[in-house]
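PT: before anyone asks, these are the final sequences, not the draft ones from last week. 294 residues across everything. Please model them as a single complex and drop the result in this thread when it's through.
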Amino acid sequence: MWTWFHKFASPPHAYRLLGNLAPWFGWPALALILLAAWWGLVKAPADYQQGDAFRILYVHAPSAWMSMFIYVAMAVAAGVGLIWRIKLAHAAAAASAPIGASFTFLALATGSIWGKPMWGTWWVWDARLTSELILLFLYLGYMALRSSFDDPQRADRASAVLAIVGVINVPIIHYSVEWWTTLHQPASVTKLDKPSIAIEMLIPLFIMIVGFQLYYGWAVSRRLRGEILRRERNATWLKEGI
Amino acid sequence: MDLQEFLRMGGYAGYVWTAYGLTAVVLLMNWLGARRCEADEQASARRRSSAD
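LR: through. Structure below.
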């Protein structure tokens, strides 16, 4: 099992595997995102309270989901890298950060655009919005910390600790709408009993989430390949040509 | 379906189209960024192996 694992985590193998995998993420991602956008904008019925403004849900909620999902993935990768000293895991965490940061920005921006007509304000300092903003700062802090080291190994270790400590913010974001009084509406999809959203409104939401996940798979594969090449610049397998 | 009616988004056109447009821009920038990250490192790896 361990020989298999080491082969899998070996840079030349991972580099080739990611190159083969990327198109299998990229094309379905494109198809699903376009399908979900059409479904959400055209086919889904308007909300009886929010009218057509509710259609922002289909870009807002999947972005918010990805912002948290990628953070947890990044923290797990950083933890694996820290405990088992696997450089590839650190590289995966580093490759995830800019993608996660962009989804966090998107969740905040689309939420703000949705908040204006519905709440009458672009921004409030309530628990959900503030904790999501802290998530953006965690991503930016992680990237800034990495770039402040010349030695990649020290950058890996220091940034991994930040990523792991910051993961405490993810459950805070999720439960913020229950723990504190906030303007943000409570969860309507990720509830233990039945989701309180009509099924014809839910389907495009799930398609968009799957599309965004695949998109992340594509983008992280590409970035990780770049990251592997940068870290392996003196390796013999690279001198033989890529 | 009426195209004009669709573009009007029940009076929320500015909000809905800005949100979707911004999403498209961010996804596109990410796409280009990931591509460039990979392509730049490939180019410099090729330069190094041809310099040897």
